[in-house]
Amino acid sequence: MCSLAGASGYCPRIVQGYLVLPEPDSALAHRLVDEVIVASGGRLFALDIAFCEAANVVWKHQTGRAGRAAARLSEDDARFVVAELRASPVGVKRSARLLGPALDLAMRYDKTVYDALFVAAADDFNLQAVTTDEPLQLAVKDDFPRVVLLRDWQPR
Question: What architecture does CATH give domain 95-152?
Fold first, then answer.
């Protein structure tokens, strides 16, 4: 069981594989999870690298490298969150087939291949992509209008 209450008063939450750590936009992320994933009965899909990225975010929260406004996780809480991620029923999509388009996007927009994989996946799966990465969204918004900021997200 998670013991973290954090500055925002709630624990990291994993719903159908979607991890929400206490951060400034957490309330909006919870709403996204509730309204899109849970209420619609939809299934969450992620690229295989998402688990590594999520575990790295957990590590940042545990070590204090996530920023001043971010909640700090104990070692036990970090292990709990990663165990929950590993057990989540998220559908995993291989990123290898998107490496070519992602590299092209990374070079075109001067973004990391990791970030470009997010855009390439949204484009390939024809899905709306919701992010808190404002520099990424600003860079690609004209060519990929379905990549939206969490704060601007509206349920369909």
Answer: 3-Layer(aba) Sandwich (3.40)
How do residues 111-143 score in pLDDT, each as one tens digit? 999 999 989 998 998 888 888 889 999 999 999
* Domain locations along the chain: 13-92, 95-152
CA gap 149, 137 in Å, rounded: 7
Looking up tokens 């209450």 gives 5
Amino acid residing at 7: A
Q: Could you tell me the two tokens for 22? A: 């206490």
- Which pTM does this prediction carry? 0.70
* SS3 at position 14: strand
Within 10 angstroms of residue 14's Cβ, the number of other Cβ atoms is: 21
Encode pLDDT of 49-98 as tens digits. Answer: 888 888 898 898 888 887 766 667 889 988 988 888 887 767 788 999 99
Contact 144, 123 (CB under 8 A): yes
* Residues 37 and 15 sit within 8 Å (Cβ to Cβ): yes
- Integer angstrom CA distances of residue 23 from 1, 12, 51, 61: 20, 10, 19, 10
